[in-house]
Design goal:
- This protein is mainly α and 134 residues long.
- Helices cover 55% and strands 3% of the residues.
- It has two domains: 3-91, Protocatechuate 4,5-dioxygenase, Chain A (Orthogonal Bundle); 104-134, no CATH class.
- Helix 1 (3-15) crosses helix 2, helix 1 (3-15) crosses helix 6 (63-72) and helix 5 (53-59) crosses helix 7.
- The protein is elongated.
- 19% of the residues are buried.
Length: 134
């Protein structure tokens, strides 16, 4: 699998009217040159041809690239967001890339894990904290 190859194809599709026309005419054929064993896996090809926005998001495709792909397919914004949520529900957490789900629980939990103390009883996320390492 190559997240880079998937995103490269989508980036080029988003920018190239010629590739868009080829994709409209023959989705699978437009992927020629990306399907070698070192580039796109069968599941990636299926998601690009589908289109399966939820699975592409699960793979780690950047949302800025993916939203243009969704718009190209006439997918409305709220449906696009729901497809991403459905992809996570069906396929599991984002596998890699900038959206990979790491289990981060927020500033307060992070500070507590590091042994940081917050200032005063009402300190919350975004307010100044004091303590070791801050």
């Amino acid at each position: 699998m190559s997240l880079y190859a998937v995103q490269k194809f989508l980036y080029q599709l988003n920018r190239s009217p010629e590739l868009q026309e080829r994709y409209r005419d023959d989705r699978h054929g437009s992927l020629a040159g990306y399907e070698s064993s070192d580039d796109l896996a069968d599941d990636e090809v299926a998601a690009l041809v589908g289109p399966d926005v939820g699975y592409l998001f699960h793979l780690g495709v950047n949302g800025q690239i993916l939203m243009h792909f969704a718009a190209f397919h006439g997918i409305e914004w709220s449906d696009y967001l729901q497809r991403m949520r459905d992809g996570i529900a069906e396929h599991g957490p984002v596998r890699e890339g900038v959206y990979a789900m790491t289990g981060y629980e927020g500033v307060a939990a992070h500070d507590a894990a590091l042994g940081h103390r917050t200032t005063g009883a009402g300190a919350s996320e975004g307010e100044p904290r004091t303590g070791e390492g801050v």
